[in-house]
Amino acid sequence: MINVHTPAELDAMRQAGRLMADLLNACCDFIQPGITTAEVDAFCRATLRTLGDGTAQSGSLGYMGYPASLCVSVNEEVIHGIPGDRILQRGDLVSLDVCGFYHGFVGDNTRTIVVGGPEHLDADRRRLLRVTRQSLEEAVRAIRPGIHLGDICHLIERIVTQGGCTVVREYTGHGVGRKLHEDPPIPNYGKPGRGPILHEGMTLAIEPMVNLGKSAIRVLPDGWTVVTRDGLPAAHFEYSVAVLSDRAEILTPWFEKDPWSDDWMKE
Ligand code: CO
Predict the structure, then answer these.
(1) Three-state SS for 263?
(2) CA distances from 183 to 2, 27, 190, 205, 240 (A)
(3) 266 CA distance to ligand 1 centroid (A)?
(4) Which CATH code for domain 7-257?
(5) What is the pLDDT of residue 265?
(6) What SS3 class is residue 40?
(7) pLDDT per residue over 136-188, tens digit each?
(8) From ligand 1's centre to the CA of 63, what distance in Å?
(9) Domain segments of the chain: what residues?
(10) How many angstroms does the Cα of residue 206 sit away from the middle of ligand 1?
(11) How many Å lie between the centroid of ligand 1 and the Cα of residue 126?
(12) For residue 193, how far is its CA from the centre of ligand 1 (angstroms)?
């Protein structure tokens, strides 16, 4: 069953989303060459306590035994990287996935950034980031009541494929609300005209997970970290969005503070 939210519930989702976007952006600003991913986790935990009225909780810490307050996935790591001793180097691609609860509702969002700044990208990884970001932005722009979910899934897949990259098929976006993962699953591939019809008040986490090389992935022995089989880099961008009467609203507006937001389309 896909939950539909009242205007009051959407307001609460906005607050949770805004808080988690602020936390994600703070963690991205904290990243610099030489720090470990565990230090990012410590910063995330400490910052979470300072936001809003101080009652926000991480959505990942303790989720099915996951041990950290965010996921930090570096280069060939696609998603669910567990923070640890890995030292971030200038030019690394780092995906930060931050989710959590505030006043009973979840915000879930992800950015991939370049350690030291986008000037450290080569052409292929620049294309990877542009294509992944574009697939998310265009998917959000296409959302409105009455379309099929498959229209969105297909659009993401088409943009990624046309950009010469591949979508990960084993993991999906998802409905988001009072719980982190709700119906429907939102694959980053699909067929137009298939799947559930979107209605006003639905809230969805759209999250293309995109590989520069082949789409095959495997999970490391830690049971969490998903890596590309070919060792080539991956990217991941995510917004939580609400379906309004005529469009989607981004509930986790991290783009407002992302310096690349003004430029990614021109690249
Ligand atoms: Co998600």
Answers:
(1) coil
(2) 5, 28, 16, 10, 14
(3) 27
(4) 3.90.230.10
(5) 61
(6) helix
(7) 999 999 999 999 999 999 999 999 999 999 999 999 999 999 999 999 999 99
(8) 12
(9) 7-257
(10) 7
(11) 23
(12) 24
